[in-house]
User: What shape does this take?
Amino acid sequence: MVEMNTEWSRWQYLLAVLGVSLLSACAGYRGWGLQPGVTTLPEVVATMGTPALRWKNADGSEQLAYPRGPAGTQTFMVFIAPDGRLQQIEAVLDMEHFARIEPGKSDQESVLRLIGPPAPQWTAYFKERDELVWEWQFCDAWNQLARFDVLFDATTGIVRTSYQRQALMGANGVAPFCGH
Assistant: This one.
């Protein structure tokens, strides 16, 4: 009987360690636990990893892009103050940010700074229309997996249109729920 309790305790311990490891990995994934005004740029990178894109502004501040796709449904923009400390972390794959993309005014650089890089495997060029399409997967307002596309005139790089559609990858062509 003592051996069973010892064996059971080992399994409980291993499960607890695994659970804590998974939770700490999620914390780094979204940057949970990082404190604005306190956390430094090196601490952000140590927690969240190397950013996919990085911009340095004239005032010394920086912006870092952390896309969590293609399987993930979010991109996080990290804003660093000129003193090298975290200002904020912002989740950007939502309708509020998508609405800031202005047809005829936005270009590729402004889209990248607003919502981050698209999934490379979902980037396509259509020769017949001379159009470049970037795509992101995100959770829509109904908590369903959806896709957002930005279409650029390949000659000028200016946004022609953008739209949202459900990602019909679930059973029977129904968009799966995101699980939030």
